Amino acid sequence: MANSVSTKLTAFLEKVSLARQQALQNSIQPTPEIARTNMQNLSAMSGEGPEIQYVSDGSFFISAATRTEIPFRIYSPAPTQKLPVILHLHGGGHMCGDLECYDAISRKMAKFTHSTVITLDYRLAPEHPYPAAIDDCKFLLTHYRELLSGIQFNDEIILAGDSAGGALAATLSASQQNNGPQISKQILVYPSLDYTMNQASIDTYQTGFLLEKAGIAWYFENYLQHGEERRQISPLYMPATSGMPSTLLIVADCDPLQDEAYAYADTLKNAGVSVELKTFTGMVHGFMQLNSLVEEECAQVYQWMDKFINS
Protein backbone atom coordinates (compact mmCIF):
# COMPACT_ATOMS: atom_id res chain seq x y z
CA MET A 1 0.00 0.00 0.00
CA ALA A 2 1.33 3.41 -0.98
CA ASN A 3 2.14 6.09 1.56
CA SER A 4 0.10 9.29 1.44
CA VAL A 5 1.62 12.29 -0.27
CA SER A 6 1.86 15.58 1.59
CA THR A 7 -1.06 17.96 1.11
CA LYS A 8 1.56 20.59 0.21
CA LEU A 9 2.12 18.69 -3.02
CA THR A 10 -1.40 17.53 -3.89
CA ALA A 11 -2.41 20.38 -6.19
CA PHE A 12 0.95 20.36 -7.97
CA LEU A 13 0.81 16.61 -8.61
CA GLU A 14 -2.74 16.88 -9.92
CA LYS A 15 -1.58 19.54 -12.37
CA VAL A 16 1.33 17.34 -13.52
CA SER A 17 -1.02 14.36 -13.94
CA LEU A 18 -3.44 16.40 -16.03
CA ALA A 19 -0.63 17.63 -18.28
CA ARG A 20 0.51 14.03 -18.83
CA GLN A 21 -3.01 12.91 -19.69
CA GLN A 22 -3.34 15.72 -22.22
CA ALA A 23 0.00 14.83 -23.80
CA LEU A 24 -1.14 11.21 -24.09
CA GLN A 25 -4.46 12.23 -25.65
CA ASN A 26 -2.60 14.38 -28.16
CA SER A 27 -0.20 11.53 -29.00
CA ILE A 28 2.81 13.56 -27.86
CA GLN A 29 5.75 11.20 -27.46
CA PRO A 30 8.55 11.92 -24.97
CA THR A 31 11.74 13.42 -26.38
CA PRO A 32 14.98 14.58 -24.76
CA GLU A 33 14.08 18.16 -25.63
CA ILE A 34 10.70 17.96 -23.88
CA ALA A 35 12.29 16.27 -20.85
CA ARG A 36 14.95 18.98 -20.61
CA THR A 37 12.41 21.77 -20.91
CA ASN A 38 10.31 20.17 -18.18
CA MET A 39 13.40 19.94 -15.98
CA GLN A 40 14.14 23.62 -16.52
CA ASN A 41 10.56 24.52 -15.62
CA LEU A 42 10.75 22.37 -12.51
CA SER A 43 14.03 23.94 -11.42
CA ALA A 44 12.38 27.36 -11.40
CA MET A 45 10.58 26.18 -8.28
CA SER A 46 13.94 25.91 -6.50
CA GLY A 47 13.89 29.67 -6.13
CA GLU A 48 16.88 31.96 -6.07
CA GLY A 49 19.98 30.67 -4.35
CA PRO A 50 21.81 32.75 -1.74
CA GLU A 51 24.68 35.07 -2.54
CA ILE A 52 28.02 33.25 -2.37
CA GLN A 53 31.30 35.10 -2.01
CA TYR A 54 33.08 33.22 -4.78
CA VAL A 55 31.43 31.76 -7.89
CA SER A 56 33.47 30.86 -10.96
CA ASP A 57 32.75 29.02 -14.21
CA GLY A 58 35.29 26.97 -16.08
CA SER A 59 35.71 23.89 -18.23
CA PHE A 60 38.10 21.02 -18.80
CA PHE A 61 38.76 18.69 -21.71
CA ILE A 62 37.95 15.06 -20.96
CA SER A 63 39.82 13.85 -24.04
CA ALA A 64 42.76 15.49 -25.77
CA ALA A 65 41.93 13.56 -28.92
CA THR A 66 38.28 14.62 -29.25
CA ARG A 67 38.60 17.93 -27.34
CA THR A 68 35.35 17.18 -25.52
CA GLU A 69 34.78 20.20 -23.27
CA ILE A 70 33.00 19.71 -19.93
CA PRO A 71 31.79 22.85 -18.09
CA PHE A 72 31.92 23.14 -14.31
CA ARG A 73 31.11 25.76 -11.67
CA ILE A 74 32.77 26.43 -8.32
CA TYR A 75 31.02 27.94 -5.30
CA SER A 76 32.92 28.93 -2.15
CA PRO A 77 31.45 30.87 0.79
CA ALA A 78 34.97 31.61 2.06
CA PRO A 79 37.65 31.13 -0.62
CA THR A 80 40.50 32.01 1.78
CA GLN A 81 39.50 29.29 4.27
CA LYS A 82 40.50 25.64 3.97
CA LEU A 83 37.03 24.19 3.56
CA PRO A 84 35.84 20.66 2.66
CA VAL A 85 35.17 20.11 -1.05
CA ILE A 86 31.83 18.73 -2.26
CA LEU A 87 31.62 17.36 -5.79
CA HIS A 88 27.94 17.91 -6.59
CA LEU A 89 26.59 15.60 -9.32
CA HIS A 90 23.15 16.69 -10.45
CA GLY A 91 20.15 14.49 -11.19
CA GLY A 92 17.88 14.32 -14.22
CA GLY A 93 17.63 10.69 -15.31
CA HIS A 94 21.04 10.84 -17.03
CA MET A 95 19.27 12.89 -19.72
CA CYS A 96 18.45 16.26 -18.14
CA GLY A 97 19.87 18.88 -15.82
CA ASP A 98 22.73 21.35 -16.04
CA LEU A 99 24.58 24.00 -14.04
CA GLU A 100 21.69 26.45 -14.23
CA CYS A 101 18.99 23.97 -13.20
CA TYR A 102 20.93 23.18 -10.04
CA ASP A 103 22.41 26.60 -9.32
CA ALA A 104 20.13 27.37 -6.37
CA ILE A 105 20.70 23.94 -4.81
CA SER A 106 24.47 24.17 -5.25
CA ARG A 107 24.48 27.63 -3.68
CA LYS A 108 22.48 26.45 -0.67
CA MET A 109 24.70 23.43 -0.29
CA ALA A 110 27.80 25.65 -0.22
CA LYS A 111 26.31 28.15 2.20
CA PHE A 112 24.63 25.83 4.69
CA THR A 113 27.46 23.28 4.89
CA HIS A 114 30.19 25.97 4.72
CA SER A 115 31.95 23.98 2.01
CA THR A 116 33.39 24.59 -1.42
CA VAL A 117 31.11 23.03 -4.04
CA ILE A 118 32.09 22.00 -7.56
CA THR A 119 29.19 21.08 -9.83
CA LEU A 120 29.63 19.49 -13.23
CA ASP A 121 27.83 19.68 -16.59
CA TYR A 122 28.58 16.04 -17.36
CA ARG A 123 27.55 14.67 -20.74
CA LEU A 124 23.95 13.52 -21.13
CA ALA A 125 22.16 10.70 -22.90
CA PRO A 126 20.97 9.89 -25.48
CA GLU A 127 23.68 11.85 -27.28
CA HIS A 128 26.26 10.52 -24.82
CA PRO A 129 25.11 7.19 -23.34
CA TYR A 130 26.72 5.15 -20.57
CA PRO A 131 29.52 5.42 -19.49
CA ALA A 132 30.21 8.99 -20.69
CA ALA A 133 28.82 10.66 -17.56
CA ILE A 134 30.78 8.32 -15.30
CA ASP A 135 33.96 9.08 -17.23
CA ASP A 136 33.38 12.82 -16.78
CA CYS A 137 32.76 12.46 -13.05
CA LYS A 138 35.82 10.25 -12.59
CA PHE A 139 37.91 12.87 -14.33
CA LEU A 140 36.54 15.54 -11.98
CA LEU A 141 37.31 13.40 -8.93
CA THR A 142 40.87 12.80 -10.12
CA HIS A 143 41.61 16.39 -11.14
CA TYR A 144 39.43 18.57 -8.87
CA ARG A 145 42.45 20.04 -7.09
CA GLU A 146 43.70 21.52 -10.35
CA LEU A 147 40.37 23.31 -10.81
CA LEU A 148 40.62 25.04 -7.43
CA SER A 149 43.66 27.15 -8.26
CA GLY A 150 43.65 30.24 -6.05
CA ILE A 151 41.08 28.81 -3.62
CA GLN A 152 41.91 27.37 -0.22
CA PHE A 153 40.54 23.91 0.60
CA ASN A 154 41.32 20.98 2.86
CA ASP A 155 41.79 17.29 2.11
CA GLU A 156 38.19 16.22 2.81
CA ILE A 157 36.39 15.26 -0.39
CA ILE A 158 32.64 14.57 -0.36
CA LEU A 159 30.45 13.28 -3.17
CA ALA A 160 26.86 14.51 -3.33
CA GLY A 161 24.21 13.56 -5.84
CA ASP A 162 20.46 13.31 -6.22
CA SER A 163 18.60 10.75 -8.33
CA ALA A 164 20.84 9.92 -11.33
CA GLY A 165 23.55 12.03 -9.70
CA GLY A 166 23.26 9.68 -6.74
CA ALA A 167 23.90 6.77 -9.11
CA LEU A 168 27.04 8.49 -10.37
CA ALA A 169 28.26 9.29 -6.85
CA ALA A 170 27.66 5.76 -5.57
CA THR A 171 29.37 4.29 -8.64
CA LEU A 172 32.45 6.43 -7.99
CA SER A 173 32.46 5.47 -4.32
CA ALA A 174 32.43 1.78 -5.24
CA SER A 175 35.06 2.07 -7.96
CA GLN A 176 37.44 4.25 -5.91
CA GLN A 177 37.64 2.01 -2.83
CA ASN A 178 41.20 0.93 -3.53
CA ASN A 179 42.62 3.63 -5.79
CA GLY A 180 42.50 7.33 -6.55
CA PRO A 181 41.48 10.15 -4.22
CA GLN A 182 40.09 9.05 -0.87
CA ILE A 183 36.38 9.91 -0.66
CA SER A 184 35.55 10.57 2.98
CA LYS A 185 31.75 10.92 2.71
CA GLN A 186 28.89 10.66 0.25
CA ILE A 187 25.47 12.31 0.35
CA LEU A 188 22.81 10.57 -1.72
CA VAL A 189 19.41 12.25 -2.12
CA TYR A 190 16.66 9.90 -3.36
CA PRO A 191 19.33 8.11 -5.41
CA SER A 192 18.82 5.85 -8.42
CA LEU A 193 20.77 2.70 -7.52
CA ASP A 194 19.16 -0.23 -9.35
CA TYR A 195 18.91 -0.22 -13.15
CA THR A 196 17.08 -3.57 -13.11
CA MET A 197 13.90 -1.87 -11.83
CA ASN A 198 13.10 -4.93 -9.73
CA GLN A 199 12.32 -3.20 -6.42
CA ALA A 200 8.74 -3.36 -5.13
CA SER A 201 8.39 0.42 -4.72
CA ILE A 202 8.79 0.85 -8.50
CA ASP A 203 5.34 -0.70 -8.86
CA THR A 204 3.79 0.72 -5.68
CA TYR A 205 4.51 4.29 -6.82
CA GLN A 206 4.46 3.72 -10.57
CA THR A 207 2.06 6.60 -11.34
CA GLY A 208 0.93 9.81 -9.74
CA PHE A 209 4.06 10.67 -7.72
CA LEU A 210 5.96 12.90 -10.21
CA LEU A 211 8.57 10.30 -11.20
CA GLU A 212 6.75 7.40 -12.88
CA LYS A 213 7.74 3.85 -13.79
CA ALA A 214 7.34 4.43 -17.54
CA GLY A 215 9.54 7.50 -17.31
CA ILE A 216 12.25 5.62 -15.43
CA ALA A 217 12.26 2.87 -18.07
CA TRP A 218 12.50 5.49 -20.83
CA TYR A 219 15.43 7.24 -19.13
CA PHE A 220 17.29 3.95 -18.76
CA GLU A 221 16.63 2.94 -22.38
CA ASN A 222 18.22 6.19 -23.54
CA TYR A 223 21.16 5.91 -21.14
CA LEU A 224 21.96 2.20 -21.55
CA GLN A 225 22.17 1.75 -25.31
CA HIS A 226 24.73 -1.03 -25.68
CA GLY A 227 23.19 -4.03 -23.96
CA GLU A 228 24.85 -3.39 -20.63
CA GLU A 229 24.28 -5.99 -17.91
CA ARG A 230 22.08 -3.80 -15.73
CA ARG A 231 22.66 -5.62 -12.46
CA GLN A 232 26.42 -5.45 -12.91
CA ILE A 233 26.48 -1.68 -13.40
CA SER A 234 23.90 -0.89 -10.69
CA PRO A 235 25.51 0.65 -7.58
CA LEU A 236 23.18 -1.40 -5.39
CA TYR A 237 24.88 -4.63 -6.48
CA MET A 238 28.49 -3.43 -6.59
CA PRO A 239 30.78 -4.94 -3.96
CA ALA A 240 30.80 -2.91 -0.74
CA THR A 241 33.57 -2.98 1.85
CA SER A 242 34.29 -1.14 5.07
CA GLY A 243 36.43 1.21 2.98
CA MET A 244 33.37 2.80 1.42
CA PRO A 245 32.72 6.41 2.50
CA SER A 246 30.38 7.27 5.36
CA THR A 247 26.98 7.85 3.81
CA LEU A 248 24.01 10.15 4.34
CA LEU A 249 20.93 8.81 2.56
CA ILE A 250 17.92 11.10 2.05
CA VAL A 251 14.78 9.17 1.09
CA ALA A 252 11.32 10.36 0.03
CA ASP A 253 8.66 7.93 1.20
CA CYS A 254 6.42 8.46 -1.87
CA ASP A 255 9.19 7.67 -4.33
CA PRO A 256 9.38 4.66 -6.66
CA LEU A 257 13.14 4.53 -5.94
CA GLN A 258 12.87 4.32 -2.15
CA ASP A 259 13.30 0.54 -1.79
CA GLU A 260 16.65 0.56 -3.56
CA ALA A 261 17.87 3.25 -1.17
CA TYR A 262 16.82 1.17 1.83
CA ALA A 263 18.49 -1.92 0.34
CA TYR A 264 21.68 0.05 -0.32
CA ALA A 265 21.72 1.31 3.28
CA ASP A 266 21.51 -2.30 4.48
CA THR A 267 24.32 -3.36 2.13
CA LEU A 268 26.63 -0.63 3.41
CA LYS A 269 25.80 -1.29 7.05
CA ASN A 270 26.49 -5.00 6.58
CA ALA A 271 29.88 -4.08 5.13
CA GLY A 272 30.69 -2.00 8.21
CA VAL A 273 30.06 1.43 6.69
CA SER A 274 28.56 4.23 8.77
CA VAL A 275 25.13 5.14 7.34
CA GLU A 276 22.68 7.85 8.34
CA LEU A 277 19.23 7.30 6.82
CA LYS A 278 16.69 10.12 6.82
CA THR A 279 13.21 9.49 5.43
CA PHE A 280 10.93 12.41 4.55
CA THR A 281 7.26 11.60 5.03
CA GLY A 282 4.88 12.57 2.24
CA MET A 283 7.66 13.70 -0.10
CA VAL A 284 8.05 12.64 -3.73
CA HIS A 285 11.11 12.07 -5.86
CA GLY A 286 12.68 15.39 -6.80
CA PHE A 287 11.22 17.36 -3.89
CA MET A 288 14.44 19.36 -3.45
CA GLN A 289 13.51 21.19 -6.66
CA LEU A 290 10.07 21.98 -5.26
CA ASN A 291 11.42 24.35 -2.62
CA SER A 292 8.61 26.85 -3.11
CA LEU A 293 6.11 24.16 -2.06
CA VAL A 294 8.09 22.27 0.60
CA GLU A 295 10.52 24.87 1.93
CA GLU A 296 10.63 23.41 5.45
CA GLU A 297 11.53 19.92 4.24
CA CYS A 298 14.22 21.26 1.92
CA ALA A 299 15.72 23.29 4.76
CA GLN A 300 15.86 20.12 6.86
CA VAL A 301 17.86 18.38 4.14
CA TYR A 302 20.50 21.13 4.18
CA GLN A 303 20.58 20.97 7.98
CA TRP A 304 21.24 17.22 7.81
CA MET A 305 23.98 17.80 5.22
CA ASP A 306 25.63 20.38 7.49
CA LYS A 307 25.47 18.09 10.51
CA PHE A 308 26.79 15.14 8.51
CA ILE A 309 29.76 17.06 7.13
CA ASN A 310 30.69 19.24 10.10
CA SER A 311 29.82 17.26 13.24
From TrEMBL:
Active site residues according to the UniProt entry: 163
InterPro entries, sorted: AB_hydrolase_3 (IPR013094), AB_hydrolase_fold (IPR029058), GDXG_lipolytic_enzyme (IPR050300), Lipase_GDXG_put_SER_AS (IPR033140)
One Gene Ontology MF term: hydrolase activity
Keywords carried by this UniProt record: Hydrolase
Family: Belongs to the 'GDXG' lipolytic enzyme family.
Limits of the Alpha/beta hydrolase fold-3 domain: 86-288
Organism listed in the record: Alteromonas lipolytica
The protein's name in its UniProt record: Lipase
